[in-house]
Amino acid sequence: MPLVINTNVQSLNAQRQLVKSGNDLSQAMERLSSGKRINTAADDAAGLSISNRMTSQVRGLNQAIRNANDGISLIQTAEGALDETTNILQRIRELSIQSSNGIYDDSNRKTLDAEVQQLKQELDRIAETTSFNGQKLLNGSLGDVTLQVGSAAGEFIDLRVGELSTNTLGAALDAGLSNTSRYYDVVVAGPTGITSGDITINGVAVGGTSSADDSSSTSFANVSSIALAAAINNVSDISGVEATVNATTMAGASMAAAGGVTGTFTINGVTTASVTTSADGANTRSAIVSAINAIALQTGVSAVDTGEDATGIRLVAEDGRNISIAASAAGLTGAETGLRLAAVPTGESLQIGSVTLLSVDGSDVTISGDASLTTATGFVAGAFSGELAQATSASHGGADTATTQLQAGDLVINGISIGGAKSTDDTASYQGKTGSAIGIVASINRVSEATGVTAEVTGTTITGQSNTTAATLGDTLDFDINGISIATVTSVGELSADRVALRDAINKISGQTGVVARDTGSGLELLAEDGRNISLESLVGNAFNFGLGDETGAADSQAFTDVITYGAVTLQSGKQIEITAGANGIAGLEGIGFREGTFGATESGQLLKDLSIATFEGAQEAIQAVDNALEKINAIRADLGAINNRLDFTTSNLMNVVENTAAARSRIMDADFAAETANLSRAQVLQQASQAMLAQANASTQQVLQLLSQ
């Protein structure tokens, strides 16, 4: 090889090897000092990314294990309190049986009752003071407890205890789904009953209603809640759903009495004594209530003074029969009397009650039907829980006015007034935000802790009908949905083809409108699943011919201007749901799709708060009440025990996942000390050798000087 001095290749090579051995030595020392194979991303970029994901999982799972153990501690705290509650109830039951013995007189029973009253106070004290981490467990304020038992979002377990005081224990509650009661202002031909197929429950078609099933209602018995319940129960063996009849409630009217009007009222075919109204609303209500209640045994209807001019007089038929009422004088209006009287003087108005559907095995209840489902039955389509008390409002239509908006004073649930809806709660609807199902749900849920009721959107549906004859070839249809214009639809002269064309035009813009169209075979169904309002405007053409008319073809003649359909709302609770009108009167309540009444469940038995064994009868009732309370607590303890066991398995599984994930991470991240000490020794030897060879390479150019000196 040539002898040169400008480029010392041997020195450069030795330098490179020295740097490499130095890097190896530095890496081995870094790994041995840190214990990690990967100390920077440069060491193993992919491995660092994988190990960081594993670290997130391991740390998340470790926290989930702690969360699950916290949940177990909470459950054990509640279960311990319920154990004492059970012991107290057993003692009350023992005293009740003792008091039922005929050898005791009332004086002896009062002595026994004194202990019962003390034990009831202790039940309430336990319910009010049992807490975990500052949260009360048994007084109903806890609500749903969500235990995050995984390392990712959505990996949680819910548990609920509810209120277990004397205010809730004792009465047996059968929870179910109630429909909306229906009111008819002026009855001429009257409403018609359901026909076979109008409503389907759990896939089973319910047969038609018959007046033969209702011997109590004096008018329109074929459409009563009694007849509806009978039709549903005829197929309950197949559907797994039974219907019970709720009390029928006819809300009162807002009063502005002038006084001096005399007349009578005919209720369910029986006429009251003559009544004269007064300018004082309270006096008028008192006189009318007395007159109606005097014939209550004949009519099956009692009157209740609500105590307010805004809500007037409420009529109630406890057995669920229809309530029919008419006044004898034109001056006896709703404003004059506080009664829900027909708009036409001396006309007959009718209130049809509601029913509650009870799932036999606690499974969900699914309801479907044809276009007349809601108008004929008061139910809305959907799947509903079989374990909670539920009631639905009615989907309804109208312009965006004060009547259709939820305002403070419109709605009272379980004695709590619901505040007005806020337009900011509904970012989806195009119009009528404060009357939408979304806005109403938000307002109800703001006070759910006080009412014990939560609300959710059921959805907004418009069920259209087709004309019996097709549109003329070449006819067109245009309108706007939620502010967005559909593409012009041109008729091909065939009903089904025109419906399909309109369906496709609507669905093409569903991403903008939030509304999806479906061809039902007899018309088009428009659905907004998120509960936003459906606004139809600027109609040009004949909607009935394209499948969007109502049952009478009314959409034929309407211009769709400011026609808004508001969605339905489902209320859910662990107890009965009582709905009443607020200070704004019945118009405000019904304008948002609700009706007065008690819905969602049937109760039997006596609440413990009212329990007394001071009499033989009271002692007998107490035995049943305590049995109901024990059954409820046993069910809750069983659920808590099941969740406790589930959490035990959850923690065991999480620990297994943590162990194996940590092992996998270790193989990526942790340094192998045996290998790294060998690498260190090798790097040290190479480092010294490289230094020596570099010195030799640098000295090799000295040969040139020897050559020049000769």
Automatic annotation (TrEMBL):
Coiled coil keyword on record: yes
Q: Which Gene3D superfamilies match?
A: 2.60.40.4390, 3.30.70.2120, 6.10.280.190, f41 fragment of flagellin, N-terminal domain, Flagellar export chaperone, C-terminal domain
Q: Which GO terms describe its cellular component?
A: bacterial-type flagellum; extracellular region
The protein's matches in SUPFAM superfamilies, at most eight in alphabetical order, are given as: Phase 1 flagellin
* UniProt keyword list: Bacterial flagellum, Cell projection, Cilium, Coiled coil, Flagellum, Secreted
| Localization | Secreted; Bacterial flagellum
- Coiled coil regions, renumbered to chain: 75-129
Residue span, Flagellin C-terminal domain: 623-708
Which domain of life, per UniProt? Answer: Bacteria
User: GO MF annotations for this entry?
Assistant: structural molecule activity
Q: What is its main location?
A: secreted
- Domain annotation Flagellin N-terminal: ranges: 5-141
Q: Which InterPro entries match?
A: Flagellin, Flagellin_C, Flagellin_C_sub2, Flagellin_N
Q: What does this protein do?
A: Flagellin is the subunit protein which polymerizes to form the filaments of bacterial flagella.
Q: Which family, according to UniProt?
A: Belongs to the bacterial flagellin family.
Protein name listed in UniProt: Flagellin
Q: What is the native source organism of this protein? A: Simiduia aestuariiviva
